[in-house]
Amino acid sequence: MENKLLNLYHDTGIYQLELGQFVMICVGLLLVYLAIKKGFEPLLLLPIGIGAVLVNIPGAGFMAAPVYDAAGHMTSPGGLQYYIYHGGIETGLFPLIIFMGVGAMTDFGPMLANPKTLLLGAAAQFGIFATVIGAVLLGASGIMDFTLADAAAIGIIGGADGPTAIFVASRLAPDLLGAIAVAAYSYMALVPLIQPPIMRALTSKEERSIKMEQLRPVTKKEKIVFPLVVIILVAMFLPSAAPLLGMFCFGNLMRECGVVDRLSDTAQNALINIVTVFLGLGVGSKLSSEDFLNLETLGILSLGLIAFSIGTAAGILMAKLMNRFSAEAINPLIGAAGVSAVPMAARVANKVGLEANKQNFLLMHAMGPNVAGVIGSAVAAGVMLSYVGG
Fold first, then answer.
1. How far is CA 49 from the centre of its chain?
2. Any bridge partners for residue 76, and if so which?
3. Is the dihedral of CA 189, 279, 166, 32 positive or negative?
4. Residues in Cβ contact with 328 at an 8 Å cutoff, skipping those fewer than 6 apart
5. pTM
6. List of residues 6+ apart from 4 with CB closer than 8 A
7. CA 50 and chain centroid, separation
8. In angstroms, how far is CA 209 from the centroid of its own chain?
9. TM spans, by residue (predicted)?
10. What letter does residue 68 receive in the DSSP assignment?
């Protein structure tokens, strides 16, 4: 009887729980708290947090691989998160479906009405390449054990585009996927806290008060032709970016063509919501104590913050430079929206602009570089995959 009770106790999570697992369960609960109480990117932080809790429960086997006998018959099935991760994240399936849904929710109108904002979206990607160089230098100096592929995957965090970061990391640095995904989505969620101080530091009140002219109307034909042109150009010049931008433009074409409203509605709502749940649980599965609690993770989180900050600053500085040569005034705040956190970065630019001038409504102007940033981060990802992965 005592042996049975002892065996029962040895099977409990209390007996098997290690310190690292306890710490990561607390991290998962912190993400849940930030999602529920603070509203920080709840659609992803909530499933990621729960996924982190589940994968660190000792003996539960959520991430256990299936076991086969000598004849190839399965003797023990794998855990839920094992199949979610390997079926949807390792293959890159979930990020691509997310991109299709985001495309179906995106209006290219503000960017097409003011094509100059493409430059702001491009400038904001400078943080990606600056961080890649920084990560390479850290690896070369021996401070961190980062390879070139690791550096490329870490740098993508600067685009503040979670699906792109996951897509690139799953191909170039799958062992760093958990830390990269959490960093990318954390900084996306913290845009309202990170960006305003940088905006105020790099602009004067007079610059923040600049009112921009109303955007011209964009025709339906322009909105239909644009995603088709992007798909063809990307396929011809940068095929490695075609999976991301191809799905993004396909989703947008469904929205704008007006003949597949049911498909567009599904991509914008039911499909993207279902995939978001599994994506979050899959990312959370990589937050096990052995994968996450190390010096490399702290380095990734630090480099990700630097990348995001540099991208924000580069967008603002590019807007200030363009303002010197443009006949029409450009508010530098919209340059900060060049990062891919859609539409949060645009909302932050609008909010900071209203603080300087109560009549200064920048939201639609900021959506131009915001959408351009999505394209820019996908192109940067394609460059990384082609240069490093090739």
1. 16
2. 67
3. positive
4. 212, 213
5. 0.88
6. none
7. 19
8. 30
9. 14-36, 43-63, 83-106, 118-140, 176-194, 224-250, 270-287, 299-317, 329-346, 366-388
10. E
Cα–Cα distance for residue pair 227/245, rounded to 1 Å: 9
Q: What's the rounded Cα separation, in Å, for the pair 101 and 98?
A: 5
290-308: b or e for each residue (b if 16 or more CB lie within 10 Å)? ebbbeebbebbbebbbbbb
Cα–Cα distances in Å, from 88 out to 97, 278, 280?
10, 8, 11
Token duo for residue 386: 């082609």
How deeply is 72 buried, as exposed, middle or buried, from its count of CB atoms within 10 A (0-12, 13-18, 19+)?
A: exposed
- Tens digit of pLDDT at every position of the chain (390 positions): 657 676 666 666 676 788 888 999 999 999 899 889 988 778 888 998 999 999 999 888 888 888 888 888 888 888 999 999 889 988 889 999 999 999 999 999 999 998 988 899 999 888 888 888 888 888 788 777 788 888 888 888 877 788 898 899 988 988 888 788 878 877 777 788 889 999 999 999 999 998 888 888 999 999 999 999 999 998 889 999 999 999 999 999 999 999 999 999 999 999 999 999 999 898 888 888 877 777 788 888 888 888 889 999 999 999 999 988 888 889 999 999 988 878 888 999 999 999 988 888 898 999 999 999 999 899 989 988 888 865
Say how far apart CA 381 and CA 160 lie, in whole Å.
12
CB 339 within 8 A of CB 310: no
The letter for the amino acid at 342 is V
Pairwise CA distance, residues 300 & 320, whole Å = 30
Nearest to 234 by CA among 369, 383, 111: 383
> What is residue 204's three-state secondary structure?
coil
Task: Pick the closest to residue 341 from 307, 317, 318, 387 (CA basis).
Answer: 307
CB 375 within 8 A of CB 247: no
